[in-house]
Automatic annotation (TrEMBL):
It comes from the Bacteria. It holds the Pfam family Radical_SAM. The keyword Oxidoreductase applies. One of its GO terms (molecular function) is 4 iron, 4 sulfur cluster binding. Its EC number is 1.3.99.22. GO terms for cellular component: cytoplasm. Keywords: Oxidoreductase. InterPro entries: Coproporphyrinogen-III_oxidase, Elp3/MiaA/NifB-like_rSAM, HemZ, rSAM, rSAM_horseshoe, rSAM_sf. It comes from Acetobacterium woodii (strain ATCC 29683 / DSM 1030 / JCM 2381 / KCTC 1655 / WB1). Residues 155-391 form the Radical SAM core domain. SMART domains: Elp3. One of its GO terms (biological process) is porphyrin-containing compound biosynthetic process. This is Oxygen-independent coproporphyrinogen-III oxidase 2.
Amino acid sequence: MRILRFDLQRPELEYYFHELYQAFDPGVKNILSGNADGVLLQKTEEDTVTLQLNWYDEKKLTRTYQFMKNDDPLDNSVYKGFFYDFLCEYFDKKLEWGTLTGIKPVKMVFKYLNKGWSQSAIRERFSKYYRVSYDRIDLMLSIANRQADFIVPTQKKGLNKSISIYVGIPLCPSKCDYCSFVSTIVDKNADNLTKYFTHLLAEIQRTGEVVKAQGFRIDTLYIGGGTPTVLNARQLDQLMTALENAFDLSQLREYTLEAGRAETINREKLAAAKAHGVERVCLNPQSMNQQTLINVKRPWEAGLIEKQVALIKSFKFKTLNMDLIVGLGDETADDFRRSLEMVIALEPENITIHNLSIKKGSRIKDQMGIVVKEGYGEAFYQAVKQRLNLENYQPYYLYRLKYTQDNSENIGYAKPGHEGIYNILMMSECQATIGIGAGATGNLYYEETDEVQKVFTVKDVKTYNERFEEIVTKKIKAYQIYFNHKNNKF
């Protein structure tokens, strides 16, 4: 791993410079002192800033930039813009997302729209200030326009007592090499699953008592993982019955069940989901190529995905989502395109395209470090979008992660009428979400300040089981305070 020392006159720029540098040159470690393979210098004098990058075994570049009349010399974003221009020249390339490194760029669009900005003003802001390409600006605006109908306007006025719920089941039959989630492998006798399930039902009941007492109803409900379908059919039925008893689901707009691993699905489990009103099922092959899945230690069986899709469709769920990951297991662009064509042929209503992100907690990260190989290029990503568009799949939500192929984005595509409402609300952060279970984060939205307060839960099942009473009591107290605050607004 190469080491780059940051010699910054303004040390507070370290985070911003690190994030942006990683987008151009992933895998480099930065330090603020000590021996290094190269040095990045930043120095500000009156109305100019000088940047210098000197890798001792490579080229050296020095440039001086002048603050404009309206620039604030203490604004970190101004420095980030200069640094972006500097890196573009040094590496002789531009990034489609410019200086943006955040997860939720569409939320920024809504921020400007809510301030009354015109689309032309928003375009200019993203183009000149953040250096975003016209293509990605158009993508953000089109997604924002599509999401607007699903974001309840009265929530902005504090008049809507709807919230969403995420139920986390962070257990899997095995762990794939690329996975960075803190998920637990179900032990031989499923003892860890049984103990976790008992505690999960208890948390559902206790949380429901608070939510119902305060008069809140559930807008969307998402059961995610891990792999929720490691539960057997009886447990799934118990779980969904507990949710129905605990919460007001009478005005539910969407009910999603992740059934990500094909080998965990059977007719009895799907029948239980259907009986309880699940409308959206997620089956996530990640790749349709045998060797790719073998490489990342994800189970593969010839024809299983096709068989399970047919089974899911036989229950006539409203929406089937299928996920694919770009850059998985050393796949080529042609490998990915073959997977995409096979998934399109299965006719799911949603297709979500993720870009491989090498993150802490995955075996790939442990083995290789943060290494992002050269991606497939912008032409590849445009071809994927055009191919999906031909089949009437339109982008309806996106988010971004660090250390991805080509600094790209993750996009959910949907046929009209099949947009994932929970995904939209999560990315726009305009509604409170209650997180139940290990690793399930609550997001408490305060519309008066447009801020979100996080309610974290320990991620691993063992700690959740051992400290259950302490953890759940703390979470419920946070939710109680939030509901009291909301009710005082009515």
